[in-house]
Amino acid sequence: MTNIKGIYIFGILLLCATQIKATVKRDIDVSSLYMGISEDRLPKEIVPLSYEVQIEPNIEEQTFSGFIKIHLRWINDLKKISLHAHFDLTLEDTKIKLKQMTRDFGNRTTFEDITILRGGRLPRKSIYVLHLKELVKKDSECMLEIPFEGNIWETADGLFRGHYTNSTTLDQEIYLATNLKPNNARRLFPCFDEPGFKVPFTVSIARPTDFTTIFNTPLLRTDPHPLLSNYMLDYFDKTPPMSTFTFGFVVTKLQRWNNEPNLSSPTINIWSNQLDADFKEIHEKLYLTYQTIKDYFNLTIPLPKIDVLAIPDLPTADSIGIWGILIMRDTELLKKGNFVLARELLSQWIGSWITPEWWSEANINKALTSFLAAEFVMTMAVWSLMENIP
């Protein structure tokens, strides 16, 4: 009987290896695209400590506006601020404010305005430089406030718009989603758009009343929008420290599948257009895969939930990984086997939580993710066989 088990196990491992080989090779080859990323690196004289972001998408006009507060610390004496802002992002110098922060003996914070002389992008670079009237000393902290405006795209870069057919009404439904990897956060808001900068975000996002917004972290509260009728303003839990490319959200009419409560952490939610589909098997595979990865690293990601969105006709890519969110083509989610789910869930650890310092290291990151995903799939296959063979 032991020999029979061995033959079965060897056979399933060989089958898994054959099916996975082409996908792993494709992943490693695709990662070489990161090597062509522009070297628009920022000087290290100023670093971000946190972001506060409010984003208001206008779905009908395919535009968005927003406001960001960046808490900054000066590493060296300096009279200018450099940060990333894509050419498609509109900034107005006259509306940008900088306030130096000081704390008195009672630990109360006071603010003093610093004059901004002018601002503009460097030639042929997505770096925006603000020139200051006064020299800001080393170890000073300031709050930079910037309103911004931009466009919603049809291609899967930055904030984009997609469509799918409602399986119940057969109407065309619109959704918005972000794809900020590798350096498209600067298309959404001005920031320090390098993977080595990891700070917490406090975020609010406006949406029409008949839509739902899904963000990296759980919803904290919802208020009626103070200015826009038929709009709500969603406030989300503060994020752990994270890179700008892992920031993301989806504004959608997809419905959450009513899964049975699971006491495990994090909660895994499935959102789909196919309300009559039974996602129980996929939900169980997601939890099994997550548990396998967690046991391997002996680490749980510092997020209380993962939202898995099955979107028909997802443009450009089969999947988009955001920390706390997996956006997948519904055909990818419904595929047999565990490799795709293992690879996408593994990116919550390697790629979103643990990131490269710069994109020149992305080849190693991608190859490691694919290799480990294959190993986890084979491990789960062996466990399944051992349980079912008498």
Short description:
The chain is an alpha+beta fold.
General description of the model:
- With 390 residues, the protein is an alpha+beta fold.
- Helix content is 22%, strand content 36%.
- It has helices at residues 2-31, 280-297, 330-333, 339-346, 362-388; strands spanning 46-58, 63-74, 78-84, 97-103, 109-114, 116-121, 127-136, 141-151, 158-165, 172-179, 201-208, 212-215, 219-224, 231-236, 249-252, 255-256, 267-272, 305-311, 319-322, 325-329.
- The strands form four sheets. It has an eight-stranded mixed β-sheet with strand order 5-4-8-2-1-11-14-13, with no helix packed on it. The chain has a five-stranded mixed β-sheet with strand order 16-17-18-20-19. A four-stranded antiparallel β-sheet has the order 9-10-15-12, with no helix packed on it.
Chain-wise SSE layout:
Blueprint: H1 2-31, E1 46-58, E2 63-74, E3 78-84, E4 97-103, E5 109-114, E6 116-121, E7 127-136, E8 141-151, E9 158-165, E10 172-179, E11 201-208, E12 212-215, E13 219-224, E14 231-236, E15 249-252, E16 255-256, E17 267-272, H2 280-297, E18 305-311, E19 319-322, E20 325-329, H3 330-333, H4 339-346, H5 362-388
Helix pairs in contact: 1-5, 2-4, 2-5, 4-5
The coarse silhouette is globular
Distance between the termini: 8 Å
Compute the number of strand runs: 20
Largest sheet: 8 strands, mixed
Helix content: 10-25%
How would you classify the helix and strand content by structural class?
Answer: alpha+beta
> Total number of helical segments?
5
Order of helices and strands: HEEEEEEEEEEEEEEEEEHEEEHHH
Mean pLDDT figure: 85
* Rg, alpha carbons: 23 Å
Largest sheet: spatial strand order = 5-4-8-2-1-11-14-13
Give the low-pLDDT segments.
1-35
- Could you tell me the strand content as a percent range? 35-45%
